[in-house]
């Protein structure tokens, strides 16, 4: 590709994925959840909210795996007011981020990366994007395969 859309890759190991389901679609409740997390000095990274359905939201986010015990305590504290709150935690993940200034002007980079991950049988758990980067949360066991495939595809 003459103007390579991906110019670098970075990884962060030891990442946990937390999904909070049946959360009331009320910004004051959601704000309270994230404020309590911040108060405990837990650094949240990737955040994804599914569209609200019947007044309920589902929010997923990533954080350092070392903070799992703290996050469980914080989220469980909301179960008194939200008895149907469901919390799922998935550890042993790695965040891989591909970056390239040219991405904002080249359509199809995400499609190319999705295809590359699919062909290599790499499951993606969470995705966040900006104009110039795409971050994927994947199983730690797949990181070497993912990096190798991306480097080969984009001549890095």
UniProtKB/TrEMBL annotation:
Which Gene Ontology cellular component terms are annotated? cytosol
Record-annotated ACT domain positions: 18-89
Q: Alphabetically list the UniProt keywords.
A: Amino-acid biosynthesis, ATP-binding, Kinase, Lysine biosynthesis, Nucleotide-binding, Transferase
Q: What highest taxon heads this organism's lineage?
A: Bacteria
- The answer to whether the entry has keyword Kinase is yes
The pathway noted for it is:
Amino-acid biosynthesis; L-methionine biosynthesis via de novo pathway; L-homoserine from L-aspartate: step 1/3; Amino-acid biosynthesis; L-threonine biosynthesis; L-threonine from L-aspartate: step 1/5
Pfam family of the protein (one) = ACT_9
The EC number(s) given in the record are: 2.7.2.4
Any one Gene Ontology biological process term? threonine biosynthetic process
Catalytic activity entry: L-aspartate + ATP = 4-phospho-L-aspartate + ADP
Q: Which PROSITE patterns match?
A: ACT (PS51671)
The yes or no answer to whether the keyword ATP-binding is present is yes
CDD domains found in the cross-reference section: ACT_AK-LysC-DapG-like_1, ACT_AK-LysC-DapG-like_2
**MF terms in GO:** aspartate kinase activity; ATP binding
Q: Which family does the record claim for this protein? A: Belongs to the aspartokinase family.
Identify this protein by name. Answer: aspartate kinase
Species name: Ruminiclostridium sufflavum DSM 19573
Q: What is the lineage of its organism?
A: Bacteria, Bacillati, Bacillota, Clostridia, Eubacteriales
């Amino acid at each position: 590709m003459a103007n390579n859309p991906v110019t670098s890759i970075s990884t962060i190991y030891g990442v946990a994925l937390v999904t909070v389901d049946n959360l009331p679609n009320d910004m004051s409740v959601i704000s309270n959840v994230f404020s309590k997390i911040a108060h405990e000095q837990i650094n949240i990274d990737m955040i994804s909210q599914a569209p609200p359905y019947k007044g309920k939201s589902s929010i997923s986010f990533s954080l350092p795996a070392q903070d799992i015990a703290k996050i469980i305590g914080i989220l469980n504290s909301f179960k008194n007011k939200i008895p149907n709150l469901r919390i799922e935690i998935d550890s042993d993940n790695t965040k891989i981020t591909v970056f390239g200034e040219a991405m904002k002007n080249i359509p199809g980079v995400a499609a190319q990366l999705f295809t590359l991950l699919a062909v290599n049988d790499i499951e993606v758990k969470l995705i966040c994007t900006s104009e110039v980067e795409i971050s994927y949360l994947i199983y730690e066991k797949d990181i070497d395969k993912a990096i190798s495939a991306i480097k080969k595809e984009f001549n890095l």
